[in-house]
């Protein structure tokens, strides 16, 4: 089983930026598709972004396109989420998730991922 630890969350003003990191240990990170999800107060967990283990395939939720960028460094067993132009509606706990996959595979449903981090809080203040 892979263990995931998120970091980089915090309090930021509207229009600001944050970079989240998710460090993995355990099973082969380099063969895992990775996803970022978030859950705001009183809301269901929703998809943010995903990346295949090769890095060749990425996917974003419509509301994050052009503002968020997912990337990974397999040598460091880490996946990143660069978040720019943050809005109050981006306030949530952000989770990273992992699932063994083929080189170009990724998923947008949280049900497809079997390993999860504990989450990191992102708060965007106006």
What brief labels describe this structure?
single chain; 126 residues; seven-stranded mixed β-sheet; four-stranded antiparallel β-sheet; globular
Describe the structure.
Strand 5 and strand 6 (58-60) form a beta hairpin. It contains no helices and 11 strands. The strands form 2 sheets. Strands 2, 4, 5, 6, 9, 10 and 11 form a 7-stranded mixed beta sheet that branches. A 4-stranded antiparallel beta sheet has the order 1-3-8-7, with no helix packed on it. The chain is globular, with a radius of gyration of 13 Å. The chain is mainly β and 126 residues long.
Are there runs of 5+ residues with pLDDT below 50, and where? none
Portion in helices:
under 10%
Strand content: over 45%
Number of helix segments?
Answer: 0
> How many distinct beta strands?
11
User: What is the string of helix and strand elements?
Assistant: EEEEEEEEEEE
What oligomeric assembly is this protein in? single chain
Largest sheet: 7 strands, mixed
């Amino acid at each position: 089983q892979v263990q995931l630890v998120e970091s980089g969350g915090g309090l930021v003003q509207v229009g600001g930026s944050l970079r989240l990191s998710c460090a993995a240990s355990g099973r082969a990170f380099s063969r895992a598709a990775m996803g970022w999800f978030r859950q705001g107060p009183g809301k269901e967990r929703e998809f943010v972004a995903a990346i295949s283990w090769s890095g060749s395939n990425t996917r974003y939720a419509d509301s994050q396109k052009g503002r968020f960028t997912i990337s990974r460094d397999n040598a460091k067993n880490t996946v990143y989420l660069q978040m720019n132009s943050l809005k109050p509606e981006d306030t949530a706990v952000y989770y990273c998730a992992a699932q063994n996959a083929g080189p170009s595979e990724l998923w947008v449903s949280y049900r497809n991922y079997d390993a999860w981090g504990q989450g990191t809080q992102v708060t965007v203040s106006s």
